[in-house]
């Protein structure tokens, strides 16, 4: 019996090996490899799998257009399995073993933090497509998602100006993005004259599923006679039970609107949105945006994934922008060499899907419009407000005391991610 | 713009109460059709105000449709219609007569956009119109709205309505609305003093915030009176808060009970550490999703029955998987409980990934039937229907299981096998079959839990993971081998969690509960309801 | 030379061979990485060094678990907690070493404290700027936790499944606690962005090589400690209390003390493994406390063969190697493979790979012995001696 | 009643109940130093529970339990009691299955029992010799290095008796030592126990009347947790109540 098993397992092993070799031999020498570092299993698969598919689609389309520098692109997909140290390991594997020209990946801040030293050490390129807390600018990383000033601050402005909100609940999951965003918002709101007692801050653990008490607290807080809104940085899975409880306890958008920064089309797909109509989200892209570029993108996506009901979302657009920027920068530099790309990509401007152009700034953040959308019954958002122009991603928030004097500029003479304008010195590594 | 709301609202009320027929200056239909010209929210707002000013109840369906996003403009002729239906073609309905006009492609129509401000205005306008409604229930609702959103300018309208009111209950509601409005008005102190008493008698959160708001401007005797009233309302509120916490605790406890009760059978009775228990719950939730999906596409009228249909299917599906699991893996591992842990952990990974492969990694939408949506109030206790049904469902499942275990021959066989396998076998009980059926029962119950949990949580491949540790805690805390222990354990932990949460926060509360369980197990290593006796130690 | 020393100290040949092999790898891999040209067929790329270094720390963790589970019968589902605590102690040292090179250039406080507006370093962070202090904590914190936890649990005679589940509760509670930003350990992001260790750049190839060698040495020491404990009279007592706890009591032993000792030693080993893990992967965060991680350690040990010394090491290397390989080659299917492996091993290799092999060899020897015994028995039956007649 | 001094085991008015079931009721039992006693009684008579009480596994609800006339056993736990000098053989033979026969005995040998003494203990030649002696007594010499799990049922019984001897207790509690043994083995066991009784105090619980007869000692018959009859085997077996509840008519 043992012998039999050994035989079958050897067969399975050799089959798998053969497969990997088959993939290996298919790799011609004249391709450019692009790494995709998104979790396909574990807790983050829920969000990241879509981004892997989006990247595969973009690469396929680029190859149809003839590739880059006359070479075909080849995707290298790995699964860091929502395991943060594994992200670092896989990043190292991609750069060192597979020799990819650039990596598109990560979702959570901690996964980005985990791979940062690897990209720095091996001089790789990472395009990070998700809204995040800011307070970072790294030479090897391009932040194509929103910084807090490209999402949170405009959303609060909207609520204050248009909805007349005077009392604020800042509800978030207890991790660094909500903590930082709420710190920024708290400082921002106070600078706008909101009294501290009109701000309630609440943190919950990841995957929190029993929202009864907190929703009741919000209701109580909101019945103080002042117009109240909830700014939600609640993450991932915790949103569905939160919104369900909200709907069931009868909190309507016209009473206490909730504006979320982590809830997009993908998240709404798992929800009955009828009771949530009117609640808000702030993003830089919505699937419902009516432009030709977007219609084309959605059609391509549906064709690629073979499912008309699949939605598009903001991080997908971020990858779309980031990928196109990388392609243009490589074409401009004439090489995929990271140093050359880092130099050539600043200033590159590509069309986004909302009818304008996004440009890579010297701080490795990009310019984006900010849109506020209301949740509709069909699970889409309807844009109710947008910034008049593009907003530049602000890596160092002006509302946090220690980051106020810092700026980042990765162009030649300065080339620094945390230049202190008060001391006139680059605060971290680099020029001393 | 913020001023416009209450003002037009008041006008609307006065007009409607005066029984003025809609203004003849402009026919209603013309105003309705002018929505087609609105270029932004402000213009839409003006039209709503205009409609409200007509005081004609016929505008109510139009406004309601606008608020719900069902008011569309036909692009070809700028006519405004109410639409219904989903998909590419929509049924169009005349906004004023309510007659079906025909069908129109989605692309030929454009939706009149609304935002929260508009929805608020529409709600207030409809509310005002309703104060003169022939339906007493509608009048009462309108009065309640006015208590929550008091406005001095509506005072004359309320008083006018009050004079005509014949229904005593509605009249009481209007008295309160009047008192609330007086507090924010410029009326003399004597009236305000009366109003304070009336508002304090309401004792709700709204009343409290009204009084707190008034406190700032009150002086002298009024100030003292309002302070007393506030203290009184706060006291009442704290009692209700206590009751509310108990309810939250029961509701959380019932969720824990549902999640754990299947485990109480597989783990508690059979001694199998089933780490795939959470995945059985997940499968139940996915069965619900599939049922709803089929109903949505082929029999939408059955939607309210979807959960009832899903229940037996979830039980059978999860039960069948449990049966297969027992026959295929677990039966080889009896007597090695810690190894069942490893094998079932492997099974849980496989099931998770299988569901991820079949249904995709994202959350799937499971809707709530209408009878499970919303909430009702007992006094100031807000009880959401879905939580109430889950509590009842958990109790029912528990009762049925108790019955099965204690009153049926299968239950007797099960207990016999658990207590003395060899003896049971010698008496002719087919122990392997009983094992498999017991495991299937435990898994099936987990599937039932999945149907219920689909109503409050994500339906995603990770669903089960969130409950597995809690379930084990409940079973171990309650005492293995005892369903009552699981029952008491679940409710105790639920209530403890909810009483800790307001003071310690959600995370610390949970940590404290875990530490408490760890310490408790030291004190009573076999749980709350341990079977005492000369337990034969191996 | 080493083997001679070990042999003099009463270790089995197989164990000695293992130790020599580990130490040889500890020398060969770094040397090949540093000395050989990258084009050389025997060159080990840095990424493999980092990977293998990580596996070695996992192997030490699995060995630590094996000491309590395989030899003492305590199935801890919370060993990841000790590993993580050791890791955090090391991480705190590494954070303090960043000094002014953090993004805000604050000489004392780590970045995450600066941007959350912490005014001063929390008291429990003091001392971690000293390497020796951090190393003491690496052993002391997991050891103390294990001691206190075990003191209560074993004295109350919490055993079997109950013990497993409360160890799981322990690591789960710690995970929730460390996720809290208010705890001052960086919340979900944990501790990262390390610069140097003892003045050496953590990213330098030489540092990596040294860390790899240190991990190999630590694992070898772990093997020696485990072998010495399990091979001694005490080891027999451990096995005795694993198989028939109450019987040892009636012989006058206190099995709870036996378990407590083993549990504490094991926790310290796990802590050391964690401390070596952190500088090699560059991050420590509360995810390490996740109950699933601890269960995975159990699986490595089970796959390799619990109750043996070599088993857990082989299990850890094999499963993690497989995981690295599968997540690269067949990312969508690795969970199927991992899950299938668990089921396969528990059903068909209940003693793990090494245990099964040992059984195989053991059975043959037993058979020979049994034959001999039968002969002897036949002989003794032939000429009966009165029992106790001396 | 009886003076405690001079007794090795003294139980007076002991009662214990589990969930309302009275396992032992007002039991009094006295064993003199150097005495061997056989206990008989139907299932559920409380024989094993009595042993549990003496060895500290179960605490009595009321009553006195003294060892050696002066030591109150209710204040000590199992390990203490074992170190005081009470050895116990279980009804079901309980040996350490994955250890060798020699290791089983080695663990039982009298020596300091605390963790650190054990940790740094060395196998001395004196201990090895003592193990050999015991192996000789229990006729397991040829099985010295075998794993205990592979022993036959009877051999396990003997190994456990060997472990008792290695422990060198003052009082031995032996629960059904001949269950599952052949007649020849039973006789040898009886001889072995008599041998041991020459230097130790012994309590034997047994159903096998033939074996009890072989032992030729005073017999106590328990029923429903109290002493039903006590005296020589002939006296007890002719007691009507004993016949009624136990021996059968």
TrEMBL record, chain B:
It comes from the Bacteria. GO terms for molecular function: transmembrane transporter activity. PANTHER family: ABC TRANSPORTER PERMEASE PROTEIN, BRANCHED-CHAIN AMINO ACID TRANSPORT SYSTEM PERMEASE PROTEIN LIVH. It is found in: Cell membrane. InterPro entries: ABC_transp_permease, ABC_UrtB_bac, ARM-like, BCAA_transport_permease. This is Urea ABC transporter permease subunit UrtB. Gene3D superfamilies: Leucine-rich Repeat Variant. It comes from Stappia sediminis. The lineage of its organism: Bacteria, Pseudomonadati, Pseudomonadota, Alphaproteobacteria, Hyphomicrobiales. It is a multi-pass membrane protein. Its main location: membrane. GO terms for biological process: amino acid transport. Pfam families: BPD_transp_2 (PF02653). One of its GO terms (cellular component) is plasma membrane. Keywords: Amino-acid transport, Cell membrane, Membrane, Transmembrane, Transmembrane helix, Transport. The chain crosses the membrane at residues 246-273, 280-299, 305-325, 388-405, 472-496, 502-521. Belongs to the binding-protein-dependent transport system permease family. LivHM subfamily.
Automatic annotation (TrEMBL), chain C:
It is a multi-pass membrane protein. One of its GO terms (cellular component) is plasma membrane. The chain crosses the membrane at residues 15-35, 42-61, 67-90, 131-154, 161-179, 209-229, 257-278, 333-357. Its main location: membrane. Keywords: Cell membrane, Membrane, Transmembrane, Transmembrane helix. One of its GO terms (molecular function) is branched-chain amino acid transmembrane transporter activity. It is found in: Cell membrane. PANTHER family: HIGH-AFFINITY BRANCHED-CHAIN AMINO ACID TRANSPORT SYSTEM PERMEASE, SLR1201 PROTEIN. This is Urea ABC transporter permease subunit UrtC. It comes from Stappia sediminis. The gene is urtC.
């Amino acid at each position: 019996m043992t012998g039999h098993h050994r035989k079958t397992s050897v067969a399975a092993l050799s089959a798998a090996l053969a497969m990997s070799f088959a993939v290996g031999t298919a790799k011609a020498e004249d391709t450019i490899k692009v790494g995709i570092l998104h979790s396909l299993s574990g807790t983050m698969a829920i969000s990241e799998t879509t981004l892997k598919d989006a990247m595969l689609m973009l690469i396929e389309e680029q190859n149809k257009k003839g590739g880059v520098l006359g070479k075909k692109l080849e995707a290298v997909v790995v699964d860091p399995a929502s395991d943060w140290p594994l992200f670092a390991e896989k990043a190292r594997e991609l750069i060192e073993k597979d020799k990819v020209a650039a990596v598109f990946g990560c979702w959570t801040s901690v996964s980005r933090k985990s791979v940062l030293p690897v990209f720095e050490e091996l001089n790789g390129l990472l395009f990070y497509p998700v809204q995040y807390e800011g307070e970072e600018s790294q030479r090897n990383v391009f932040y194509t998602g929103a910084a807090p000033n490209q999402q949170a601050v405009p959303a609060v402005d909207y609520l204050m100006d248009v909805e007349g909100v005077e009392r604020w609940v800042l509800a978030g999951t207890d991790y660094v993005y909500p903590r930082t965003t709420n710190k920024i918002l708290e400082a921002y709101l106070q600078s706008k004259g909101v009294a501290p007692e009109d701000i309630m801050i609440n943190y919950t653990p990841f995957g929190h599923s029993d929202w009864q008490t907190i929703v009741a607290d919000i209701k109580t807080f909101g019945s103080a006679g002042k117009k109240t809104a909830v700014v939600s940085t609640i993450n991932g899975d915790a949103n569905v039970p939160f919104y369900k409880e909200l709907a069931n306890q009868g909190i309507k958008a016209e009473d206490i609107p909730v504006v979320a920064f982590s809830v997009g089309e993908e998240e709404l797909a798992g929800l009955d949105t009828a009771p949530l109509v009117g609640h808000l989200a702030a993003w830089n892209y919505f699937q419902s945006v009516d432009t030709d570029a977007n219609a084309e993108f959605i059609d391509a996506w549906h064709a690629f994934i073979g499912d008309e009901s699949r939605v598009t979302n903001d991080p997908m657009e971020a990858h779309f922008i980031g990928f196109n920027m990388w392609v243009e920068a490589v074409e401009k530099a004439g090489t995929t060499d990271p140093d050359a790309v880092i130099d050539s990509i600043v200033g590159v401007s590509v069309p986004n899907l909302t009818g304008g152009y996004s440009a890579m700034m010297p701080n490795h953040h990009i310019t984006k419009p900010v849109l506020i959308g209301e949740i509709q019954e069909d699970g889409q958002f309807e844009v109710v407000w947008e910034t008049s122009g593009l907003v530049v991603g602000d890596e160092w928030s002006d509302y946090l005391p220690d980051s106020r004097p810092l700026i980042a500029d990765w162009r030649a003479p300065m080339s620094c991610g945390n230049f202190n304008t008060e001391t006139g010195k680059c605060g971290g590594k680099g020029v001393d | 713009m913020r001023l416009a709301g209450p003002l037009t609202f008041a006008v609307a009320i006065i007009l409607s109460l005066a029984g003025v027929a809609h203004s003849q200056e402009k026919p209603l239909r013309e105003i309705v059709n002018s929505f087609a010209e609105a270029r932004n929210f402000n213009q839409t707002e003006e039209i709503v105000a205009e409609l409200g000013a007509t005081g004609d109840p016929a505008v109510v369906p139009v406004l309601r449709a606008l608020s719900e996003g069902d008011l569309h403009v036909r692009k070809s002729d700028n006519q405004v219609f109410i639409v219904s239906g989903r998909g590419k073609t929509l049924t169009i309905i005349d906004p004023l007569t309510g007659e079906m006009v025909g069908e129109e492609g989605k692309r030929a129509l454009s939706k009149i956009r609304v935002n929260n401000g508009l929805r608020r205005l529409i709600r207030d306008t409809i509310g005002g119109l309703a104060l003169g409604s022939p339906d007493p229930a509608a009048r009462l609702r309108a009065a309640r709205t006015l208590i929550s959103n008091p406005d001095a300018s509506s005072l004359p309208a309320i008083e006018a309505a009050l004079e005509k009111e014949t229904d005593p209950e509605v009249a009481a509601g209007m008295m309160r609305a009047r008192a609330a409005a007086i507090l924010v008005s410029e009326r003399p102190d004597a009236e305000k003093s009366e109003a304070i008493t009336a508002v304090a008698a309401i004792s709700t959160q709204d009343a409290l915030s009204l009084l707190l708001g008034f406190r700032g401007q009150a002086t002298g005797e009024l100030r003292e009176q309002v302070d007393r009233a506030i203290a009184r309302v706060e006291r009442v509120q704290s009692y209700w808060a206590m009751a509310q916490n108990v309810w939250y605790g029961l509701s959380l406890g019932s969720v824990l009970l549902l999640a754990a009760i299947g485990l109480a059978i597989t783990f508690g009775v059979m001694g199998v550490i089933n780490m795939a228990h959470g995945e059985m719950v997940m499968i139940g939730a996915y069965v619900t999703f599939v049922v709803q999906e089929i109903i949505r596409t082929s029999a939408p009228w059955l939607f309210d029955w979807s959960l009832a249909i899903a229940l037996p299917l979830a039980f059978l599906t999860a039960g069948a998987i449990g049966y297969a699991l027992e026959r295929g893996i677990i039966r080889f591992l009896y007597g090695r409980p810690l190894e069942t842990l490893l094998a079932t952990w492997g099974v849980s990974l496989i099931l998770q990934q299988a569901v991820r492969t079949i249904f995709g990694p994202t959350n799937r939408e499971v809707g709530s039937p209408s009878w499970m949506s919303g909430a009702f109030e007992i006094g100031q206790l807000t009880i959401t229907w879905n939580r109430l049904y889950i509590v009842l469902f958990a109790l029912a499942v528990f009762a049925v299981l108790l019955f099965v275990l204690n009153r049926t021959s299968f239950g007797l066989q099960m207990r016999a096998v658990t207590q003395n396998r060899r003896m049971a076998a010698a008496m002719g009980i087919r122990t392997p079959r009983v094992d498999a059926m017991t495991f299937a029962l435990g898994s099936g119950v987990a599937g039932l839990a999945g149907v219920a949990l689909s109503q409050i949580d994500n339906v995603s491949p990770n669903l089960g993971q969130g409950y597995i540790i809690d379930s084990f805690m409940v079973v171990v805390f309650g005492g293995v081998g005892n369903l009552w222990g699981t029952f008491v354990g679940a409710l105790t932990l639920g209530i403890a969690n909810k009483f800790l949460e307001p003071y310690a926060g959600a995370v610390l509360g949970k940590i404290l509960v875990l530490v408490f369980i760890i310490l408790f197990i030291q004190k009573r290593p076999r749980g709350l309801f341990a079977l005492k006796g000369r337990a034969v130690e191996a | 030379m080493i083997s001679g020393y070990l042999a003099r100290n009463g270790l089995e040949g197989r164990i000695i061979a293992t130790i020599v092999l580990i130490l040889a790898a500890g020398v060969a891999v770094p040397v090949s990485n540093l000395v050989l040209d990258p084009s050389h067929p025997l060159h080990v790329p840095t990424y493999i060094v980092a990977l293998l270094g990580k596996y070695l720390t996992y192997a030490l963790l699995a060995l630590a678990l094996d000491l309590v589970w395989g030899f003492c019968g305590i199935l801890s589902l919370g060993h990841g907690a000790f590993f993580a605590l050791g890791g955090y102690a090391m991480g705190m040292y590494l954070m303090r070493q960043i000094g002014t090179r953090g993004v805000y250039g604050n000489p004392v406080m780590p970045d995450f404290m600066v941007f959350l507006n912490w005014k001063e370093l929390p008291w429990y962070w003091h001392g971690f700027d000293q390497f020796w202090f951090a190393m003491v904590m690496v052993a002391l914190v997991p050891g103390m936790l294990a001691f206190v936890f075990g003191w209560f649990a074993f004295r109350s005679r919490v055993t079997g499944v109950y013990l497993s589940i409360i160890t799981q509760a322990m690591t789960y509670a710690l995970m929730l606690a460390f996720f809290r930003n208010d705890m001052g350990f960086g919340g979900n992001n944990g501790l990262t962005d390390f610069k140097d260790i003892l003045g050496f750049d953590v990213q330098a190839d030489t540092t990596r090589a040294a860390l790899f060698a240190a991990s190999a040495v630590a694992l070898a020491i772990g093997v020696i400690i485990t072998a010495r404990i399990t091979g001694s009279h005490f080891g027999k007592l451990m096995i005795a209390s694993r198989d028939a706890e109450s019987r040892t009591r009636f012989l006058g032993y206190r099995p709870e003390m036996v378990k407590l000792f083993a549990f504490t030693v094991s926790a310290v080993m796990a802590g050391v493994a964690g401390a070596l893990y952190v500088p090699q992967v560059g991050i420590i965060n509360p995810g390490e406390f996740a109950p699933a991680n601890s269960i995975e350690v159990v699986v490595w040990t089970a796959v390799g063969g619990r109750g043996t010394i070599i088993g857990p090491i082989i299990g850890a290397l094999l499963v993690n190697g497989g995981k690295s390989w599968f997540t690269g080659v067949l990312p969508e299917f690795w969970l199927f493979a991992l899950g299938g492996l668990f089921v396969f091993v528990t059903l068909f290799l209940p003693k793990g790979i090494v245990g099964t092999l040992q059984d195989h060899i053991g059975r043959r020897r037993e058979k020979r012995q049994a034959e001999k015994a039968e002969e002897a028995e036949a002989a003794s039956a032939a000429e009966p001696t009165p029992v106790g007649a001396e | 009643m009886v003076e405690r001094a001079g007794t090795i085991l003294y139980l007076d008015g002991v009662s214990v109940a589990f969930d309302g079931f009275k396992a032992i009721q007002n039991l009094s039992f006295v064993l003199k130093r150097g005495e061997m006693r056989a206990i008989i009684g139907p299932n559920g008579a409380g024989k094993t529970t009595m042993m549990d009480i003496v060895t500290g596994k179960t605490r009595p609800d009321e009553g006195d339990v003294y060892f050696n006339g002066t030591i109150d056993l209710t204040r000590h736990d199992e390990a203490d009691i074992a170190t005081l000098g009470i050895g116990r053989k279980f009804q079901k033979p309980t040996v350490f299955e994955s250890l060798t026969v020699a290791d089983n005995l080695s663990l039982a040998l009298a020596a300091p029992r605390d963790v650190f003494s054990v940790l740094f203990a060395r196998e001395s030649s004196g201990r090895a010799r003592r193990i050999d002696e015991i192996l000789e007594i229990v006729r397991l010499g040829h099985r010295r290095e075998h794993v205990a799990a592979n022993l036959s049922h009877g051999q396990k019984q003997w190994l456990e008796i060997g472990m008792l001897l290695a422990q060198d207790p003052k009082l031995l509690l032996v629960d059904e030592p001949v269950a599952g043994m052949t007649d020849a083995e039973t006789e040898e066991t009886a001889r072995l126990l008599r041998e041991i009784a020459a230097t130790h105090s012994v309590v034997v619980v047994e159903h096998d009347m033939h074996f009890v007869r072989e032992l030729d000692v005073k017999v106590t018959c328990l029923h429903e947790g109290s002493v039903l009859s006590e005296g020589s085997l002939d006296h007890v077996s002719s007691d009507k109540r004993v016949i009624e509840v136990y021996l059968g008519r």
